[in-house]
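Why does residue order matter? Because the sequence determines the fold. Keep that principle in mind as you read this record.
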Amino acid sequence: MKNTKVALCTETIYPLYGVEKRVYEMAKRLPKYGFDVDVFTSTAKEKLPDINIIQVSAPTIINPPKRNYAFCLSYLFNLYRKIVKENKIKKYDIVDANGHLSLIPCYLAAKQIKKPVIATIHDLYLLEWYDMYSGKAAIFGLPFEIASAKLPYDRILTLNSSLKRKMIKILGIPENKVEVLQSGIDVRYLDKIKSKKKEKTILYVGRLVPQKSVDTLIKAYSLLPNEIKEDYKLKIVGEGNQKEYLERLAKKLNIKNIVFTGKIERHEDVVKEIKKASVFVLPSQRESFGITVLEAMASGTPVVSTATEGPSDYIKNGENGFLAEIGSPESIAGSIEKAISPGKRIVINARKTAIQYDWDKIVKRIAREYEKLM
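Structure:
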């Protein structure tokens, strides 16, 4: 019996952030369930030689999060042509579009080759486009997002229940077409990484961009009792266009026990930082899933997250972690105080939750969704 052939599409697959990490793990793990996967992307083959990449255009993102919009248009228009061309040889059985820029060309290509198409929609900004972006990106982003999300796909996968509700209530998509199927973590990989004993650090890992709301975390830290600030260092791991602003803010608030490490290149070293930390904090304004939160939960580090879309699905406040109000330094500070001495029950419950999101389990579920369409 021949393997099922999948055209798996994403604008970019490197560096490995949320969408990119999901597609990479799918490309690695789907073959053991009988699927041959070609990844259509703007990323060059040599970046990830262990998966089969078909490069569609020049890389659209070289210095994240900045995009080259000319290359984005090239990807958008070339993707349809590439799938149809490769299909003459490969004979694809399923087309899976990840991320908004892939949706329309994948839908059109699937109709051309007469095969089912899955849309994996990781986020919807809707009216928040004008808060997240400025200029042309905001003007054209909203109608493009709506038009691409409302196409009659054979199946739609989303990363959280909040996003599913938006698609049903706001966009009018039939409920039976939409399934929540989150991303995951590699539990065995995490367990192999050994770190030094716990340090008295409150840790953030991620991009330093407005959406991540790291300034709210810094303000929250400034509100902590002096004895906590003296004992527990605030460690900020990552790069982004807000770094200088955040450093100025820390200085303005007279925060001395803080360190900005910059980006840590090796993921293994990032995991070591997570395992060493006393508390992991994700202060985002919006977060479709939150991979680093689950990595911390699997690693025995208590977590605090704002009650954004993704983390709200798997964090039960006071049971396996702590949820704080979005944009509230006071709420985040209160949750950090609780997380510093969480009790063993919360750490154990967090681990039990995290292992339910192991990539093997997630990709097995994705394989079942493919099989339903065959």
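The chain has two domains: 4-184+358-373, 187-355.
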